[in-house]
Amino acid sequence: MSLLEKVANLAKRRGFVYPSSEIYGGIAGMWDFGPLGAELTRNIKNEYWKTMVRERDDVVGIDASIIMNPRVWEASGHTEAFSDPLVDCKKCKKRFRADHIVDDFGTLDPSDFVGLVNEVYADPNTKPKCLECGGDLTEPRQFNLLVETFLGSVEGAKEKAYLRGEITQGVHTNFKQILDSTRVKIPFGVAQIGKAFRNEITPGGFIFRCREFEQMELQYYVKPDKKASQKTFEEWKEKRLQWYLDFGFSKKNLRFKEHAPDELVHYAQAAFDIEYNLEGEWKEMEGVHHRGDWDLRRHQEYSKKDMTYYDEETKEKYLPYIIETSAGVGRVALFALCEAYHEEKLKEGEKNDDTRVVLKLHPKLAPYKVAVFPLLANKPELVTLAKKIYNDLRGSFMVAWDERGNVGKRYRAQDEIGTPFCVTVDFESLEGKDVTVRNRDTMKQERVLIAELSSYIQLKLS
Ligand code: GAP
Asked: What is the pLDDT of residues 261-317, one digit of tens each?
């Protein structure tokens, strides 16, 4: 079984991720986060907001609406250029992304990607066949990824609108209002977290490519100076890579991949992906883009509103350049789970054919920080003390309670969902006012005074 399959199984079994509306057969590209997934993604978003907004003097956060005036998407270029090439199998009617099939055939040359895809399809000797049934494929056709919706209550007079294809545009359309209502000065950034929607041709890879997903983005406005903006671009690349290292990703599993000129999306002058190494396959987790003045220039042109910035220092008016960092919450969660997933053969002294599955999630991302157990569920004095500790700790941490089975089984259950610490209340606790604290990663146990438990865990988590 591949790592992705193991993670997907665990995610479903333990309540991280469920297929959306599964009782009706599900729906392609849609997933729900269960109780543990909701905690994990909330922790990712909270840490993002903390480091990208709260701890910075030069960044503010906003939360824009999902549906905007449809003209926004004309201005941003999405109605025209936000598309992928699709091919259909003439025999089994399966649909594929033309470029993905070429990639699967191993003929990908990133330096001339789009040209190459077209060339491969134009030549009868290299034109790929259906990956499912080997049937003939249609010619590639461009397919727009924007998801349409209709607003209004009068049939026939409903207005077409779009679910946003990227969360970005809500920031740029608010550029002037942010300038007028806050004290930001260039260089400054606007961060946002929210849902985006894309009519992906081939959703898949578990939660890797979805039709509904959440993004965490920073739009950083700088002077329109080529050299200086390039420097800021490089700085943000490094900061974003470091962010993943700080949250437990290993260096060997991360890399930058530059987009070749003909791979660049319509708004980008330069782009790098931060990729994650999923068992030898590099997958995009976050994009860092130099958007130039594309967005503000286009909104100025389409809205006929002045989008320039007045620089009080230099007494100049200009359209700033934009450096963007954009990550998918679901992808960060997925790769954090993959990075954390370990199967460990247990050491001598324990049943040596036994394997421990443990999620070594960074403590700040782990859904539960600590679990509390009474040694025996049928001893009221142990349960009462354990419940008191559980309730006290809940004031500061996300805490799990478990009294089923034996302590060994409870440890395993917590290991599998990444809980960094387990606290067991035993008979000694009644006398000595201390408890056993067991560490998820080392499996070592130590006695800690109940009065010092909260500060002990706080210290270890930080
Ligand atoms: N505003 C720029 C932008 O949206 P992008 O490279 O299209 O750029 C940024 O998307 C990030 O959003 C990706 O790196 C990925 O993490 C996430 N993402 C994009 N499409 C996705 C999809 N279909 N499913 C899940 N996540 C997606």
From this structure: 888 888 899 999 999 999 999 999 999 999 999 999 999 999 999 999 999 999 999
For 377-409, what is each residue's pLDDT tens digit?
999 999 999 999 999 999 999 999 999 999 999
Question: Which residue CA neighbors atom 20 of ligand 1 most closely?
Answer: 209
**One domain for residues 267 and 312:** yes
C-alpha torsion sign, points 107, 112, 118, 122: negative
Q: Which tokens in the block code for residue 155?
A: 């049939």
Ligand 1 centroid, distance to 116 Cα (angstroms) = 24
Residue 217 CA: which ligand 1 atom is closest? 1
The answer on 308 and 179 residing in a single domain is yes
Assign 295 to helix, strand or coil.
Answer: helix
- Domain extent, residue 421, equals 368-461
3-state secondary structure of 115: helix
Chain segment 321-331, per-residue pLDDT in tens: 999 999 999 99
Would the CA dihedral through 109, 110, 116, 117 be positive or negative? positive
Q: Which two tokens stand for residue 411?
A: 């440890």
Q: Residue 328 CA: which ligand 1 atom is closest?
A: 16
Pocket test for ligand 1, best of 213, 236, 274, 329 (most atoms within 8 A of CB): 213
178 and 291 assigned to the same domain: yes
Domain final residue pick, 337, 352, 384: 337
Asked if the structure places residue 330 within a domain, the reply is: yes
pTM of the model: 0.91
Q: What separation in Å is there between the alpha carbon of 377 and the centre of ligand 1?
A: 47
Q: What is the CATH number of the domain that holds 400?
A: 3.40.50.800
Count CB-CB contacts under 10 A for residue 156: 5
Please give the backbone phi and psi of residue 160, each rounded to the nearest 5 degrees, phi first: -80, 135
The answer on pLDDT for 49 being more than 60 is yes
**Which pLDDT score, from 0 to 100, does residue 352 have?**
55
Choose among 210, 173, 186: nearest CA to 329. 210
Which ligand 1 atom is the nearest neighbour of the CA of 211?
23
Give the number of other CB atoms < 10 A from CB of residue 433: 12
Residue 331 belongs to some domain of the structure: yes
Which ligand 1 atom sits closest to the C-alpha of 332? 16
CA of 366 to the centre of ligand 1 (A): 24
Pocket of ligand 1 (CB under 6 A): 166, 168, 198, 200, 209-210, 213, 215, 217, 284-287, 324, 326-328, 330-331
- The answer to whether residue 442 is domain-embedded is yes
Q: For a ligand 1 pocket test, name from 326, 329, 334, 335 the mutation site with the most ligand atoms within 8 angstroms of its C-beta.
A: 326
Nearest one of 223, 443, 249 to 346, comparing CA atoms: 443
